[in-house]
Design a protein that fits this description.
Distance between the termini: 33 Å
CATH superfamily of the largest domain: Hexapeptide repeat proteins
Structural class: alpha/beta
Shape: globular
Largest sheet: 6 strands, mixed
Strand order of the largest sheet: 3-5-10-13-16-17
Strand content: 15-25%
Low-confidence stretches: none
Radius of gyration: 21 Å
Number of strands: 17
Order of helices and strands: HHHEHHEEEEEEEEEEEEEEEE
Number of domains: 2
CATH class of the largest domain: Mainly Beta
Mean pLDDT: 93
Length: 232
């Protein structure tokens, strides 16, 4: 499927370059210059098509991260394979299109197509935001450069998944890590290079820093709400 999606995505860009190549020119050098100038716009067309077609294709075949599961990797169950395949497709998109569109409305548009529930004016300046169908962000959420937000973790040979919910106006600082099952109240701020452990609940309008995070002014780490039986 990846090859088919790649080929379909490349088709509009190639047609654009071909049309420019076949225009009448008074000098062959002008033809080469025109095609060279069109290379970047053609690549943008390809990258955007790749994002859209890959999102529709993975949804069509059901390649998604299963929600709230603990799967033994050695068993290679169908839900696990679906997750692996979805990650492969996203990795291709991240490499070929992510650097062009991240931190733009187009990247948020792709995340929505890929299953993320995003509010308005969501700003994602990171290529380490994965498991999109398990992400729920309110309006005006900001994800800083290089921040890692994922709905999965791999521990002791098991894949574990849970939703990540960030309320309206939440900010995740540069290079921070947000674990599975995290819930952050509206207006919460996580400082740069901080680590929010899995199943942590963050208060609204509070600031958290550190690894693991602590609420500014508090002595104890942020409280965790890991479900009973969430282990193996």
């Amino acid at each position: 499927m990846v090859i088919v999606v790649f080929a379909l995505s490349a088709t509009p860009a190639l047609l654009l370059l071909r049309a420019i190549w076949e225009l009448p020119y008074t000098h062959e050098g002008a033809r080469l210059l025109a095609v060279s100038a069109a290379a970047l716009p053609a690549y943008l067309v390809f990258a955007f098509a790749l994002m859209v077609l890959s999102a529709f294709a993975t949804r069509l075949v059901g390649w998604r991260t299963p929600a709230d599961v603990t799967l033994r990797i050695a068993d290679l169950d169908p839900p696990l394979l679906a997750w692996v395949r979805s990650m492969v497709v996203f990795h291709v998109v991240r490499i070929l299109a992510g650097s062009m569109f991240r931190a733009s409305p187009m990247w948020s548009f792709y995340l929505r197509l890929n299953g993320a529930r995003l509010g308005r004016r969501v700003f994602v300046n990171s290529l380490a935001v994965t498991d999109h169908n398990l992400l729920e962000f309110g309006d005006d959420v900001i994800i800083g450069d290089g921040a890692h937000v994922a709905g999965h973790t791999v521990e002791d040979g098991f894949l574990k998944t849970a939703r990540v919910r960030l309320g309206r106006g939440v900010t995740i600082g540069v290079g921070s890590v947000v674990g599975i099952g995290v819930e952050a109240g509206p207006g919460c701020r996580v400082g740069a290079l901080s680590v929010v452990p899995k199943f942590t609940s963050l208060d609204a309008d509070a600031t958290y820093v550190g690894a693991p995070v602590r609420k500014l002014g508090a002595q104890a780490p942020a409280r965790r709400t890991e479900p009973t039986g969430a282990g193996h």
